[in-house]
């Protein structure tokens, strides 16, 4: 797998892996084809061997684990070897609905703060968790929030995130279910200082077999050019 080495660009991917319970080989293929610099995972393998399975998956797709297991719970964060990582940590979220115990994976990659979320199916818990995340871990500069929101555009979660950040793929294709996708519930939100060069929802047989979600891939400009800046370089498509 070849990832970008341009310091001004980051390819970001969010992917719900459904615990690698479907076709692991196809899930690996999906990520390798996308070649992200940063991969936010939802529903990584859990249990006694979950961390080891996630480590093997990262190795097989050509990435390394920055946050994996423990307090991250239903999230993980993988990063390409050529990228710098700092302040990598997990945040446990309070289990308010008495169902799935959820967490958040966070790290700074090449100066950009990434926050990987897998929000609750229960609206009130989703709102409470989002309040905790927005209060302490999201700013209007140098920040990317990505993951499975378990909510469609127009819902309160999307509105609250959009008050601080920018939806990287506002007219994007649906991501769930993987087969005959109907709903856009997976998203990447970026702070206004970051540029979005391209965004896409991959398709094809590996996507249909690898998980019950389709991933979202976004190419970010970490230092986008400003109109009229005489020193700005031309971005090649």
TrEMBL record:
Source species, domain of life: Bacteria
InterPro entries: Endo/exonu/phosph_ase_sf, Endo/exonuclease/phosphatase
SUPFAM superfamilies: DNase I-like
Domain Endonuclease/exonuclease/phosphatase: 13-213
UniProt entry keywords in alphabetical sequence: Endonuclease, Exonuclease, Hydrolase, Nuclease
Molecular function as annotated in GO: endonuclease activity; exonuclease activity
Family annotation (Gene3D superfamilies): Endonuclease/exonuclease/phosphatase
Protein name: Endonuclease/exonuclease/phosphatase
Originating organism: Cellulomonas humilata
């Amino acid at each position: 797998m070849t990832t970008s080495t341009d310091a001004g660009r980051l390819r970001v991917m969010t992917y719900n892996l459904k615990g690698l319970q479907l076709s692991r080989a196809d899930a690996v293929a999906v990520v390798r084809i996308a070649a992200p610099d940063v991969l936010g995972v939802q529903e990584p393998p859990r249990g006694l061997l979950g961390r080891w399975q996630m480590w093997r998956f990262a190795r097989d797709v050509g990435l390394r684990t920055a946050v994996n297991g423990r307090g991250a719970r239903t999230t993980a964060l993988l990063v390409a070897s050529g990228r710098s990582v700092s302040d990598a940590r997990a945040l446990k979220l309070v289990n308010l609905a008495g169902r799935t115990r959820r967490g958040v994976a966070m790290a700074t990659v090449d100066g950009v703060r990434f926050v990987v979320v897998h929000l609750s199916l229960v609206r009130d818990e989703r709102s409470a968790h989002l309040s905790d995340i927005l209060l302490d871990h999201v700013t209007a500069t140098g920040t990317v929030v990505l993951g499975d929101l378990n909510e469609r555009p127009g819902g309160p979660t999307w509105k609250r995130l959009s008050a601080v950040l920018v939806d990287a793929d506002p007219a994007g294709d649906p991501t769930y279910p993987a087969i005959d996708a109907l709903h856009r519930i997976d998203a990447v939100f970026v702070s206004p200082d970051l540029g979005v060069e391209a965004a896409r929802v991959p398709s094809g047989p590996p996507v249909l077999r690898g998980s019950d979600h389709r991933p979202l891939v976004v190419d970010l400009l970490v230092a986008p050019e400003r109109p009229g800046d005489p020193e700005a370089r031309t971005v090649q498509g």
